[in-house]
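ok so I'm stuck.
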Amino acid sequence: MKNFDANLFNFDFTKSFIMKTQLSRRDWFKSTAALSTGLVMSTALLDRLMAAPMSQAERNHVLKALNGKVRLNSNENPYGPSEKARQAVVQILSEANRYPFDAIKDFKAILAKKEDVPVEYIHVGAGSGDLLCQAGTAFGIEGQRIASCYPTFTLLMAYAQVFNAKWDKVDLNEKLEYDYEALAKAIKSDTKLVFICNPNNPTGTLVDPKKVKSFCEEVSKNTVVYSDEAYLELLEPAQQVSMVDLVKKDMNVVVSRTFSKVYGLAGLRLGYLVAKPDLIKKISQYGGDFPYSQTAIAAAKASLGDESFMAMVRGKNAAARKVLTDYLDEHKIFHGKSLTNFVFFPAQKDGKTILSKMEERGYLMRIWDYQQKEWCRVSIGTEEEMKGFVKSFGDFV
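replied:
not stuck anymore, here's the structure
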């Protein structure tokens, strides 16, 4: 893999497909094909696969095979899908010769019932990443502004910038939380969308949902708010407050959810949006007709409502996360108060060295650039994996 200057990477080769004011579905799929062929093993593609912009340390670090490594770099659920999901996948294989038209229709109805909205308020995609790309295109093509705090999950903004939107970034607060007051002040007359993420990736921090709700109610009067809730189910049930209630009031709010995290279906790729129909129409025109499979739908349907499995994942994740946060507290290393399956803290040595030395010891992790410093983001594996990580990290650091 060659080093790549992300500042020069403006996806110029897609512009031949883009009209000044309009992008047709045919043109969109052509540009997607160009992206797919033009980005093989580029830093930009890795950015997307890693679900975050690569730090300079990672650009200089050749990513090796994952075989035998403990993957603490992608916020994956280390416990796999539930037994119900596994059984559902096996059972649906007999339907693998059939297109999933009926399955998609039924699945949307199930999701609509779960969220207590009409089915027209639901849009399904190949994971929340797919939906973020669609939304980034839908709003980015208008060529105006998108605002968010930073660092956060950047995929939507990255796609919007492809189509010449401007991204207004606002720093997190001193607790590494989304700063909603500062974000509100950053909104301009031509801001087309405001992206929020609660709990936030990469910091794992949670802002009081009452504050988030108040922000969404006010801001959505003038622009669209996109609420990324990928990690909501990793919170304890009493903390799981979604912005879907605002969608039910037909506010300009889009909520995205995924089956990749607590449900352990990252490899099957399935997520969904909840929004009023005009916003669903605006975003969904940039999606594929059915980019998801019979197996993904079957696994997701079986996972919904599996409270015992989700409770198991939350419990094991909390115990494993405590191994890492106890280590950081013991060594007086500042970190965000994570309620998710990753922790964010300042790098104790240069990022390139951390990445290479920890990989030598069998552990993959992330390095972020923020406020002219390097930061570690470590995903939470099993409790044994985290014990091994902190020992190796402590021996090295």
